[in-house]
Design goal:
alpha+beta; 5-stranded antiparallel sheet; 4-stranded mixed sheet; 9 strands; 35% strand
Length: 191
Amino acid sequence: DEYIRLFDIALPQSVVAFDGEAFVGLALLGLRGAESWITRLGVAPAGRKQGAARQLVEALIVNARQAAARHMRLEVIADNPPAIHLFRKAGFRPWRELVILKRPGNLPLVAEGAVRNMSRHEIMTNVDSRRDPPSWKLAGRSYLNNPAVQGIKVWMQDVGQGWMVFQPMAGKLRRIAFESMGAHGVVLRGL
C-alpha cells in the first residue's frame, strides 16, 4: 500500500499475467502526468524464457500511452544482462547510471560542523533543484507523497555544506538524496 501511494502506481494500468489458473508474472506502472515508470517486473520461474516478460513490458507501454504518458523510464541492475537485453529490445536506452553506496555506522565524522533540520518547504526546494534528473523513487513527487521524509542541512568547518533528505526506518535510513558543495567548489550528489 505504501509503495503504491508513494510512487503513484496505477494499479488499473499495471499488468498481472496468468496461464490458465497459474500465475506467470506481474509488472507495475507508475504514472505522473506525461511521465511513466515500469517497476516491480517479475516472472515466475515456470514462465521464464517464454516471452512473458516481453509481453508484460509491451502491455505497460500500451497502457502508458493510453494514459497519455509521453515518456517511460525504468531502473535495472547493471549486472542483469537478460533484463537489459529485454528492455533494449523494447526500445529503452541507457540514460544514466545509479550508484548505491553503503557506509558502516561506526565510522566517525571527520570534521566539526553544525546540523539543523529542514522544513518541508526546504526539503522540496532542495530535491527539486537537483541538476541531474532523479530516479522515480527519489523524484520530488515521491518525497511529497511521503509524510515521513525528513531533511537536514549540514555545515562542516573547512569542508563545505550540503543537505540530505531521507526516510527514517527502524534502525536505518531509506530513500536518501543529498547534495554537498565542498569548500573548493567540488559538488557531490547522490540520488
